[in-house]
Design a protein that fits this description.
The complex is a heterodimer of chains A (302) and B (273). With 302 residues, chain A is an all-alpha fold. Chain A contains 14 helices and two strands. Chain A has a single domain, classed as MetI-like (MetI-like fold), CATH 1.10.3720.10. The chains are: A mainly alpha (302), B mainly alpha (273).
Chain lengths: 302, 273
């Protein structure tokens, strides 16, 4: 094979590879660089700026002017640390709640009659396709002080004064659970659907109670699906912006929102970049874990 | 043992779906509300839809969004399919681990990071922000979704068919388009649709990478939502939901009829032997 045809055969790899290197990896290196730069008033608002006309000496002097100042600033201000901790806490609690709602749904779907299952599956996937923003927006009208939920509860006589849900962390939990529920249901459903029912039967024959068989067999076999679902909810929830911004209140601290405010309201690109880097470091373990699980699943289906 | 659908299962499915659909249904219902107060029902009316078509800013934003979505979905589908082929067919090449990482990472990457990093790229190469920057950003993150969707179909495809064609003298690219592409086409189409709706939907990445004159519909909706819930927004959202729902239903019917036809063809082929 000559070189030209070898390159042609490799084009399949080269084209998307170069695209991702340029539009995915390079931008990350830029975030890192700007996180280490100093804030400057101007356009763009950071220094130093590298340019190709720089000589080597100038390049080096600019390189050495990078420092960890922004990170020290972040550690010094409790606002940022609290944002990280509160993001992790909100994401964790919502993931657990999503699992508690999503598992029975996936379990019920997996046991539905054969003819009904494809329709149920389609119904879970459909909200995926409708806008995230719209689905979050729909909850504002339900949760606000004079909203539909309070009207219903007042009418039923269950409460006498309207509940305050919108603009609190409760609304954020509801928003995350609602938006990410399909991400939890689908992986669990696919593990449960493949499960061999005779295993549960065997456990029952050997004297297991119904709950015991469920716990020892069904739940154990569903673990890969549960893990995948939890990661798919937890990782994006940590960096969520739209939900805390629209449903949460001024007291809702989440790192995605803090980053947005630093960038758009305070125009502090260097601090926003440093926040992004730390967010990435926090998420790197779950992301790598998720990738390995994905790769393993693909290998297995070969 | 037959799988039993107990009352517990039925209840949890009903509650789950009620939770998933009730908010959307309420939103649609209240878009037909006569009253400007969103939570008070004052009779059926379609006046907010009429209002929409007189709102030039909204129409402009919708047009920008559709163009971005169409263009980015089409390019992302080509690149994503290539990436899927690379992942499935080439198990060994230099930097495969990095490549796999770059394909999977954007799936779970917080949008604020993707948006910020792409903006910094465009600023540092002095690329004027606007229509094209949003499109490039959308191509980048949706190509990964396309790659995953196509990959899952490609993994189960029997490659010997394509090799047979090549043995009979068909050039590789032609063998791919003649044999493999028709088989993975449903996955490619659903990849395109996924990319299209992802782009239609995106607020965060578009806000970072967009510039003057390229306000997308989600950006427009977001800026109005911040001021409060209005029936006009309910109407826009209802239209968007309607378009997407119809699209998904048509697509699934198409794949289903393809599947039925394929099965019939297979059976006919078996019958002839």
């Amino acid at each position: 094979m000559n070189i030209v045809s070898a390159i042609k055969a490799r084009l399949v790899i080269i084209v998307p590879y170069i695209w991702l290197l340029f539009f995915f990896l390079l931008p990350f290196l830029l975030v890192l660089k700007i996180a280490l730069s100093d804030l400057e008033y101007g356009q763009p608002p950071y220094a130093p700026q590298f340019s190709f006309s720089d000589g080597w000496g100038e390049f080096w002097s600019k390189l050495t002017s990078l420092d960890l100042e922004n990170f020290i600033f972040l550690i010094g201000d409790s606002l940022y640390i609290n944002s990280y901790l509160s993001s992790l806490q909100i994401a964790f609690v919502s993931t657990v709640l999503t699992l508690l709602i999503g598992f029975p749904l996936a379990y019920g779907m997996a046991r539905a009659p054969d003819g009904l299952r494809p329709i149920l599956l389609m119904l879970v996937i459909l909200p995926f396709w409708t806008s995230f923003l719209i689905r979050v927006y729909a909850w504002i009208g339900i949760l606000k002080q004079e909203g539909l939920l309070n009207q219903l509860l007042l009418w039923l006589g269950l409460i006498h004064t309207p509940l305050e849900i919108l603009s609190t962390n409760k609304a954020v939990y509801i928003g995350i659970i609602y938006s990410y529920l399909p991400f939890m249901v689908l992986p669990i459903y696919s593990t449960l659907e493949k499960m061999d029912e005779s295993l549960v039967e065997a456990a029952r024959d050997l004297g297991c109670t119904r709950i015991g068989a469920f716990w020892k067999v069904t739940a154990r076999l569903a673990v890969p699906g549960i893990l995948a679902g939890c990661l798919l909810v937890f990782i994006p929830a940590v960096g969520e912006f739209v939900i805390p911004d629209l449903l949460g209140g001024s007291g809702t601290l989440m790192i995605g929102k803090t980053l947005w405010i630093e960038f758009f309201n305070n125009s502090d690109w260097t601090v926003a970049s440093a926040l992004a880097i730390i967010l990435l470091i926090v998420l790197v373990v779950p992301i790598v874990w998720f990738q390995n699980a994905q790769a393993r699943a693909t290998e297995q289906s070969r | 043992m037959r799988k039993r659908w107990t009352w517990f299962n039925i209840t949890s499915v009903i509650f789950g779906f009620a939770f998933l659909y009730l908010p959307i249904v309420l939103l649609v219902i209240y878009s037909f509300n006569e009253s400007r107060l969103v939570t008070v029902w004052a009779g059926f009316s379609t006046k907010w839809y009429g209002e929409l078509f007189r709102n030039q800013g909204l129409l402009d934003a919708a047009w920008v969004t559709v163009r971005v979505a169409f263009l980015s979905a089409s390019i992302a589908t080509v690149l994503g399919t290539l990436a899927a082929v690379a992942l499935v067919r080439y198990t060994r090449f230099n930097g495969r681990t990095l490549f796999t990482g770059m394909v999977y990472a954007p799936l779970v990457m917080p949008e604020v990071i993707t948006g910020l990093s792409l903006l910094l790229l465009f600023v540092s190469i002095n690329f004027a922000r606007g229509f094209w920057t949003v499109t490039l950003a959308h191509i980048t993150f949706s190509l990964c979704f396309v790659a995953v969707v196509v990959q899952s179909r490609l993994v189960s495809f029997d490659r010997s068919l394509e090799e047979a064609a090549q043995d009979l003298g068909c050039p590789p690219f032609r063998a791919f388009t003649l044999i493999t592409l028709p088989v993975i086409l449903p996955a490619v189409i659903s990849g395109w649709m996924l990319a299209f709706t992802l782009s239609l939907d995106d607020l965060v990445i578009a806000s970072f990478t967009s510039g003057p004159g390229a306000t997308t519909l989600p950006m427009k909706i977001y800026s109005q939502v911040r001021l409060g819930v209005t029936p006009e927004i309910n109407a826009v959202c209802t239209l968007l939901i309607g378009v997407v729902t119809i699209g998904v239903i048509i697509a699934s019917l198409l794949t289903k009829s393809r599947e039925v036809r394929r099965r019939r063809d297979e059976q006919a082929a078996l019958g002839n032997h």
